[in-house]
């Protein structure tokens, strides 16, 4: 944190100067955190700056301003999204890293509510993106970000792609219900997403919270749909048609309505029990699927909350206690280079083994050369290590005070460490890439992906076996897998007759895998399982997919603009077309011959093109699946070629365009009739 030497003779001038400096810094960090989802400082550093500013404004009230970051919530809404005004304000919480301040918080409650029992609820502080979901008569009307606390971004299309968000509430729902929650990216999915981004040469996300924020800011909801997002709800805003008295009863009520709520929570009636619950939560929180960074303490009774009231930006009846991230020191012995299946070179820290967050760690990704230089990481340094988002070991800082002068600066090699080819860095990208398509490292990674359980599921063709096959010159292309035989495999080390038979049987079985698995196994950039399924359903054959136009690809549900461009570029490459020719010759399934409900050619869906718009009782992907499985197609835009527009509530411009063009419009009742 910058320091300022204050002149004793003019403390007000020094205070004014420091306040202006802090406001500028905090505004910039807010922009990076809320708008870009790319923060450059840790939460604790930000909190220290914020607290210093708040203290100065309290000591020098003449310099207070309604434009100060201390008087506002979150960040400004984004211009790329339409805006939503919250029915009830979304305020942020005061937070602390001090247990003593939690004690002072509870004592303050006792002073404000003398001679009363004050039960409080302790629940996990999910480290995600705050959202508000508005339901009218049980149907999701819209979803919005916190924004500035009063107005947020309308992210309804992206929220609808999250399976844990009900489009229609279960049971008896209130007439109006504003639900508050946190969108998170699960920790396992975060690891896979960053690995894929590194492979593609894209900047990695710092932690699951930033990954979730970046996903919700996508203008193409098909990209959001591919991200492993979930929502945990924790409270309500405006509500009509239900009487709520206690926060502790919300969790079970939320679950009866179809939401996901916190797995663990505690009710306490004393400071001692509150601290005990905070410690207990810290013990169990690492097992949750989502990242947590603290505990939230809230007054349980809503009647007491009403009397306690609010400050300008925070409720007086709640506080967030943040846990210290576990950091350990170890020595960085070397920086190794890992080559991915797309040729991206990734620096990896080789460390003196150390235990962090319960795991023994000897390797940590350094992401890219720019990140190494930004943190000034040198070979031989003593470094501080923690698990980013409780998932991935990461070097977060360097003990420069312990340097002896023997440490060495890192430079990315000019040649690939695997094949010695000259590496290349494209303009505007951080990734350094080996452009030799025959690089053994790239081949190994492509083979491992092709044979993985989620793709062709070839049991026995794992990392060790692939390594041997490539080093012995038995595999030069993915298609060479289908030319392996017992005579070739017997030359490998420590591979017995039974292992050979099992592997060959698994390779033979893979030829009958459905088309979507083959599409996924090709490793097309940005194409995950859901997009692979959508492509298989839509085109029905590899030939049709290969010859598809960019425009047609971009109109498919689960594909969209960015993914469509990636798919189209993949099939324009002569080497990829040759690969498909070899796989076809090997006997792999090239058509989608899964059982379909449209075998009856009189079905009204066969050959039809649908556009879905408005608020419907079921998720759009479920409706699209029903159309596609009956021989229809789903498009994102209305044209003269559109057969039907399925219009729900609040259908907008697409419905108007359909009427102008004379396109048939079906409501849900008509759609269900057509489904039969």
Could you please describe the fold and organization of this structure?
There is one protein chain. This protein is an alpha+beta fold and about 675 residues long. The chain folds into 6 domains: about 10-70, Orthogonal Bundle (Helix Hairpins), CATH 1.10.287; about 85-320, DNA ligase/mRNA capping enzyme (D-amino Acid Aminotransferase, Chain A, domain 1), CATH 3.30.470; about 330-400, Nucleic acid-binding proteins (OB fold (Dihydrolipoamide Acetyltransferase, E2P)), CATH 2.40.50.140; about 440-510, 5' to 3' exonuclease, C-terminal subdomain (DNA polymerase, domain 1), CATH 1.10.150; about 515-585, DNA polymerase, domain 1 (Orthogonal Bundle), CATH 1.10.150.20; about 595-675, BRCT domain (Rossmann fold). About 35% of the residues lie in helices and about 20% in strands. It is built from 24 helices and 24 strands. The strands form 6 sheets. Strands 12, 13, 14, 16, 17, 19 and 20 form a 7-stranded antiparallel beta sheet that branches. Strands 2-11-10-3-9 form a 5-stranded mixed beta sheet. The chain has a 4-stranded antiparallel beta sheet with strand order 5-4-7-8. Helix 22 links the parallel strand 21 and strand 22 (about 635). Helix 1 (about 10-35) runs antiparallel to helix 2 and helix 16 packs across helix 17. The longest helix has 25 residues, at about 10-35. It is globular, with a radius of gyration of 28 Å. The chain starts with 10 loop residues before the first helix and ends with a helix. The model is unreliable at about 1-10 (pLDDT under 50).
């Amino acid at each position: 944190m910058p320091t300022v030497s204050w002149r004793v003779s003019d403390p007000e001038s020094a205070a004014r100067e420091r306040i202006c400096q802090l406001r500028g810094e905090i505004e910039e960090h807010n922009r990076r955190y809320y708008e870009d989802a790319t923060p450059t400082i840790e939460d604790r550093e930000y909190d220290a700056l914020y607290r210093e500013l708040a203290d100065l404004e309290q000591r020098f009230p003449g310099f207070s301003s309604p434009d100060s970051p201390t008087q506002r919530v979150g960040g400004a809404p984004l211009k790329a999204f339409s805006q939503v005004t919250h029915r009830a304000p979304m305020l942020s919480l005061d937070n602390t890293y001090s247990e003593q301040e939690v004690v002072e918080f509870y004592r303050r409650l006792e002073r404000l509510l003398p001679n009363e029992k004050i039960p409080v609820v302790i629940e996990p502080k999910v480290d995600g993106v705050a959202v508000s979901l508005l339901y009218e008569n049980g149907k999701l009307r819209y979803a919005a970000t916190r924004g500035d606390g009063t107005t947020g971004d309308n992210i309804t299309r992206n929220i609808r792609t999250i399976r844990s968000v009900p489009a229609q509430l279960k049971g008896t729902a209130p007439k109006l219900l504003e639900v508050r929650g946190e969108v998170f990216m699960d920790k396992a999915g975060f690891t896979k997403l960053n690995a894929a981004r590194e492979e593609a040469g894209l900047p990695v996300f710092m932690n699951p919270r930033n990954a979730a924020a970046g996903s919700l800011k996508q203008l193409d909801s098909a990209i959001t749909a591919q991200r492993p997002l979930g929502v945990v709800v924790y409270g309500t805003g405006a509500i009509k048609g239900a009487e709520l008295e206690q926060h502790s009863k919300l969790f079970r009520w939320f679950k009866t309505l179809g939401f996901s709520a916190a797995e663990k929570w505690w009710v306490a009636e004393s400071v001692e029990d509150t601290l005990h619950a905070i410690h207990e939560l810290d013990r169990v929180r690492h097992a949750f699927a989502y990242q947590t960074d603290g505990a939230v303490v809230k007054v349980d009774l809503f009647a007491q909350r009403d009397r306690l009231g609010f400050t300008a930006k925070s409720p007086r009846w709640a506080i967030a206690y943040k846990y210290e991230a576990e950091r350990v020191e170890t020595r960085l012995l070397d920086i190794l280079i890992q080559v991915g299946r797309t040729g991206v070179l990734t620096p990896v820290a080789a460390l003196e083994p150390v235990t962090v967050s319960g795991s023994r760690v000897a390797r940590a990704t350094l992401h890219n050369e720019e990140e190494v230089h930004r943190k000034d990481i040198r070979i031989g340094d003593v470094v501080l290590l923690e698990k980013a988002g409780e998932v991935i070991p990461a070097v977060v800082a360097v003990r420069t005070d312990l340097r002896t002068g023997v440490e060495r600066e890192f430079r990315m090699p000019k040649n690939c460490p695997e094949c010695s080819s000259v590496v290349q860095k494209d303009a505007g990208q951080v990734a350094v890439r080996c452009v030799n398509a025959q690089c053994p490292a790239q081949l190994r990674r492509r083979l491992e992906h092709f044979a993985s359980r989620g793709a062709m599921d070839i049991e026995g063709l794992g990392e060790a076996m692939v390594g041997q096959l490539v080093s012995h010159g038995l595999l030069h292309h993915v298609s060479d897998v289908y030319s392996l035989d017992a005579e070739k495999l017997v030359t490998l080390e420590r591979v017995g007759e039974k292992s050979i038979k099992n592997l060959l049987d698994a390779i033979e079985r893979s030829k009958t895998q459905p088309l979507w698995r083959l599409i996924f196994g090709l490793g097309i950039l940005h194409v995950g399982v859901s997009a692979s399924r959508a492509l298989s359903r839509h085109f029905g054959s590899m030939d049709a997919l290969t010859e598809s136009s960019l425009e047609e690809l971009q109109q498919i549900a689960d594909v969209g603009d960015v993914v469509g461009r990636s798919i189209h570029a993949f099939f324009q490459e002569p080497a990829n077309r040759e690969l498909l020719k070899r796989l076809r010759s090997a006997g792999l399934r090239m058509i989608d011959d899964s059982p379909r409900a449209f075998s009856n050619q009189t079905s009204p869906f066969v050959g039809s093109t649908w556009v879905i718009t408005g608020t419907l009782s079921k998720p759009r992907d479920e409706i699209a699946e029903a159309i596609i499985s009956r021989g229809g197609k789903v498009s994102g835009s209305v044209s003269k070629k559109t057969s039907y527009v399925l219009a729900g509530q609040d259908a907008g411009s697409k419905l108007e365009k359909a009427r102008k063009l004379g396109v048939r419009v079906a409501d849900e009742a008509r759609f269900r009739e057509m489904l039969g």
